[in-house]
Amino acid sequence: MIVAALRKKLAYEARKWAEAGSVPLPENLALNAPPAHVKADISLPWPLAAAKAAKKNPVELAKSLAEHLSKVPEVESAQAAPPGFVNIVVKQTALCANLKAITLAPKSYGADEDGPKTKVLVEFVSANPTGPLHMASGRGATLGDSLVRIMRRLGRQASAEYYVNDAGARVVLLGESIKARYLQAKGQEAAVPEKGYQGEYLADLAALAPPEAAGWDAEKWGRYAMDALLSSHRDDMKVFGVHFDRWYLESELFASGAVPKTLEYLKGRGMVFEKDGAVWLGTLNAEGSTDDKDRVLVKRDGKPTYFLPDIAYHKDKYDRGFERVIDVFGADHHGYVPRMKAAIAALGKPPESYHAIVHQLIHLYRGQEAVKMSKRAGTFIPLRELIDEVGKDACRFFFALRTPDSHLNFDLELAKRQSSENPVFYVQYVHARIGSIFRKAAEAGLCAPGGEMPMPNARYLRDPEERALLNKLAWLPDVLLDCERLLSPHPLANYLMELAGLFHPFYEKCPVVAASDPEQGKARLLLIAGVRDAIREGLDLLGVSAPEQM
RNA sequence: GCCCCCGUAGCUCAAUGGAUCAGAGCACGCGCCUUCUAAGCGCGACAUCCAGGUUCGAUUCCUGGCGGGGGCACCA
Fold first, then answer.
1. What's the Å distance between residue A266 CA and nucleotide B3 C1'?
2. Helix (H/G/I), strand (E/B), else coil: A326
3. Start and end residues for every CATH 1.10.730.10 domain found in chain A
């Protein structure tokens, strides 16, 4: 809370200072965490950024700004540092008050943070119900779910949605595939269609079919398989700790007539033309479009392509009042992004209201051996198998730790080991250790369970290890804003690693229950309560559990 | 051929254009368990693919290479 709140004050004062001295400050006044060798809590590069335009010496500017900012109540000291930084030490009382804010009212911060209260919709996973979810969906699920949780934490109205492609030709194709499996099991001659779904899972599903299945046609078989697979998707997401506010069926979209209505709407906007007997969307020349060609909406045979109902679905998102629309895609769909953006523009929506998060593929290994994933070939690794092997917590933390842009190497053998090589233990262990200290403290009568936590006495918590934790805790809300800005939970996961890394040395050097001065012990107890709550909070936002003991 | 992503320590990854110290974890070397969990801590080694450019300042931005991954349908 303190860093985010303090930024406003510092920025306000800096603008006043800049105005008085006619110094052109940059639009974006960001704060830096200073490097390790600088003994300060917050660092401002603002004078450096302004120096050139002002034609002044950056160090002189920094000195002047530092003097001005040292009057801010929460600031202990503000010092200029070459080549033009202002380094700020925050008052101990302010950091202690921040600790109380985290400990007592963890739900209070965020509500008054920067940023609009816009309604935002995050769509993710949206896998076709033609096979089990595979592990790439796990990455998308981690991204989307964590992002929604973080945005809600920041006071946004965020919703999660899963779009189910349950209509179209694939139902029959799926039906033909599973029917072939069924007949094969009966000893009859039957082949899965060449372009059909080859995975063994269909044989398993066929074996579970009721007796009357003998008389089913391909369509009926397709419905049966799709229902079962969709149900497994729901189960997988539940086990993975992922919540969707709505599972939006493509068939609903067709039933509501939204598809032809959307086509008419686009025609009315003059974005549609006919060529070669087909109906096209002018994505090539749509405003702000980066697409490299026009796209077909209705095929020559009169049937819509997948693109048209997708546009109808996105139109529906806006029609339902969402002002910000975020789609999470795997890298294999990245080519889809420019045309979707063009479609948003064609709908007349502001292009900046739409964001596509494209996460790169996961490279899966078993030890040294690369495992190829292919849904068609049926040799993919199902997400469920991954969860069963390495656990939900490790899986989600591992996925959350990387930026979506990075190609992720996931070694099943390594992840299965459940040793310290897995960073999630590093963080969870801190939570468990603190739980242990609290149990000891309760035995020693140092704290009443569930008792209210007062603000720690600011005379204490001045050791480097204590101070480092106080400082780190102050950055948590800022980290959440980073996650929102970057549309990724990875800054939070990395923050938790760093926080955990600061706790362990504290633990070694600063006894809590056994502190020589009982008052100091009390203050430390309040400090680690803050650490515990921050970790619990952070892990919860990532969908990872925070065990009391391990 | 065109488009997207990546290239940082032995390995897996961080770092809104900032600091003579580019951070973690694992692995490696040396220490540390009569005291709140050694799944830990301290210390030590080890890195920005190459070449230009922009800038007071580049891992970050631009151009061109090199290397790896993915995508380019009137399929879904």
1. 27
2. strand
3. 421-541
Residues facing residue A373 across a β-bridge? none
pLDDT band at A483 (very low <50, low <70, confident <90, very high): very high
Q: How far apart are CA A45 and CA A31, in angstroms?
A: 8
Question: Which nucleotide, over all strands, has the C1' atom closest to the CA of A292?
Answer: B3
CA angle A502–A539–A104, rounded 5-degree value: 80
**Smallest CA–C1' distance to B38, residue:** A508
Residue A518 has a pLDDT of 84
Q: What is the pLDDT of residue A369?
A: 67
Contact status, residue A261 vs residue A312, Cβ threshold 8 Å: yes
**Residue length of chain A:** 550
Residue A414: both structure tokens together: 């390594």
First to last CA, chain A: 30
Q: How many CB atoms lie within 10 A of CB A20?
A: 10
Q: Which nucleotide is nearest to A521 (CA to C1')?
A: B36
Determine how many CB atoms are found less than 10 A away from the CB of residue A73.
8
A87 CA, B55 C1': separation in Å?
A: 23
User: Cα angle vertex A140, ends A134, A143, to 5°?
Assistant: 145
Gap from A410 CA to B6 C1', Å: 16
For strand B, give the nucleotides within 7 A of a protein CB. Answer: 2-7, 12-16, 18-19, 21-27, 35-42, 55-56, 68-76
Q: In what order do the strands lie in the sheet with A278-281?
A: A272-275, A278-281, A295-298
Tens digits of per-residue pLDDT, A131-175? 999 888 999 999 999 999 999 988 889 999 999 999 888 899 999
Mean of pLDDT over chain A = 86
- Closest nucleotide C1' to the C-alpha of A406: B6
**Confidence band of A199 (pLDDT split at 50, 70, 90):** confident
* ipTM here: 0.91
**Range A421-541 classified under CATH 1.10.730.10:** yes
For the domain made up of A2-90, give the CATH fold. Answer: Gyrase A; domain 2 (3.30.1360)
CATH 3.30.1360.70 domain range(s) in chain A? 2-90
Of the candidates A481, A485, A492, the residue with the CA atom closest to the CA atom of residue A537: A492
What is the architecture of the domain spanning A119-168+241-359?
Answer: 3-Layer(aba) Sandwich (3.40)
Contacts for A168 with CB less than 8 Å, ≥ 6 apart: A250, A306
Rounded distance in angstroms from the CA atom of residue A124 to the C1' atom of nucleotide B60: 29
Predicted confidence (pLDDT) at residue A404 exceeds the cutoff of 80: yes
Scanning every strand, the nucleotide with its C1' closest to A494's CA turns out to be B14
Inter-residue contact A189 to A178 (CB < 8 Å): no
Instruction: Collapse the DSSP code of A470 into the 3-class scheme (helix H, G, I; strand E, B; otherwise coil) and give the result.
Output: helix
Residue closest to B5, CA→C1'? A405
Q: Is the pLDDT of residue A64 over 50?
A: yes
